[in-house]
Amino acid sequence: RARAPRCAGCSLAITGKYVSAENQTFHKECFVCASCRRPLSGQHSRDGDNLSCQACYERAHPLERCAKCGSAVRGQAMRTRGQTFHAECFTCCSCRREIDGPHFRTDDGAGYLCVGCQPRCSMCNETLGGKSFVRVDGATLHKECFRCCDCSDCIDGGFFEVPKTNPFQNRKERHRCGACHTRSLQQREDVVEARAVAAEDWKKQSDAAKYKLAWRPEIMPCPNQALRDLGVVDVSAHASKGELVCITFDEASGRVGCAPVSAAHAEAAVSLPYLACVLRVLRESRREPQFSLDPKDPHDLSGPFLLKRFYPEWLGGTVVGEVLFQADYALKQLCFGDLRLPGIPSVFDGESSGGRSPRSEPAAARQWFTMRRVGITVTADGALVPHVELGVEARRLTHGPNGYIDAPFTDPNDPTARQAAAVTARFPEVVAQLPVAAQLMQLARATVLAVYLLGRGCKLNDSLLDRYRIPGVPEGSEYSIQIPTLVKDRNQSIVGSKAVDAKGLEINVHRHSRSMRGGVDLAVPGDRKVPTRAVTARLLDPRTRPVPLPLFLPAPSHSAA
User: pLDDT digits over 360-418, tens only?
Assistant: First the structure.
């Protein structure tokens, strides 16, 4: 008895019948459920240090339920995506066979598919099971199969569908990554822009012929003819030999004359037709010649036409008026890049769309020629050498109640202001390369001479000035006062990072448009007081003597004004 085994239930010696379970020995009457105290027979489970019948154990530890039939799951089970199934309940929703291996959840999440019934990649036709995939426009693809049709890199982020170019071609849809689509769109926009530029160039050529929008050297007045018209026969003979004409002034007598001068002293030469025209303008208008190019409708910068405005009005149709207009028009062509000169940018050069918002109206500005500095050098033999420094000023325009007016402030870094500064800095080069700019310089020099002589008290010969026929353009009364509007457009494609849909990118096409007003103001700075400098050098040939210039009355006596 001392050597008899002990009961695991009551710890007493076992001398009779007993039960062995879980490596322990029990009296038959002690082998009961720890919860309901009923004898254990058949299946039982250990719960900690105690034994429980199956019913009490399942009440204390509920079993998993099959996600399909709802019954408790005992024995072999399938677990996937947080769900548990009886092995016989985990079947393919397509072929109804048990699934024992790789499987794939259906799109609606209601069931699973076996390997044989799984969907396949729309690109490689392999099954999708066990691999990452993406859904694109109704198609399902392996993530590594979703590649850009241009660069072949995997697309991870925004993408764009490549449109079909052939509607009769049955092909799989192709897609581009954001970077490649940007380049493709930019190339397309470049083609559109190139076609627009070509059409614009054709229209400009047509307009240039119709509206005479190019400088015509053949309309330049003949200096020899002007001398003959003024009755200066002696100097006319020299001019016919290719010599130039300069203006002289005798301070003592107040007499204004003219004399031939060699090409070596071209800086002293003056155009007598320009001088005669400027003298008439000063006599009638009490101000120097001016010109502006304004929109026909002051409230609509992009209207179809611009108007030429001459001050005084009768300058329209004269060679002087045409010089003013053509010089201003050439400036606009430089501004828009239609004319190119080294070192002078257009308003679009270096202008990018980054940071810019689409404009609701064209960016408007005006540029005009002005006299920056003037002067007269008087040589020992009385020759007058005019000095002129022309430049370009620019102002941004803003809308006012009566149309567009100068804005209170123009940023020096504004493309129009930078372009005007470049033209001013390189004006001698502009004069050397643009014939009409050289004519504008001649007109400016004649203006300085006219203002200087009138300021010295010289009297005009009104009768001769009235009889002298101001050189005009060939079209005469048919001269067009309006021309097509000078507006320049530029397209730019921009890919933004704003997520607007599942594709993740947004394409914006911004149109930048600029319009330009302009003019020429030949007003002499400094309240018409022309600075004068006397030098001891002589300029005229000693064998020639100045002859009176009939545009001015002879003065028997002269007192300095």
Answer: 445 678 889 999 999 999 999 999 999 999 999 998 888 888 888 888 888 898 888 99
Cα(530)–Cα(337) distance, integer angstroms: 36
Rg over CA atoms, the chain: 49
Residue whose structure tokens are 């085994």: 5
Please name which of 516, 344, 325 lies closest in space to residue 439, comparing C-alpha atoms.
325
What does the DSSP assignment read for 375-395? EEEE-TT-EEEEEEEEEEEEE
| Nearest Cα to Cα of residue 489 among 350, 348, 372 | 348
Tokens of 537: 């050098």
What's the pTM?
0.68
Strands 363-378 and 383-400, sheet pairing: antiparallel
Cα torsion for 204, 323, 310, 388, to the nearest 10°? 130
- 3-state SS assignment for residue 496: strand
Residue 220 CA, chain-centre distance (Å), reads: 39
pLDDT in tens, 193-232: 888 878 888 888 898 889 999 999 999 988 888 888 888 8
Count the Cβ atoms, other than its own, within 10 Å of residue 102.
12
3-class state of residue 333 by DSSP: helix
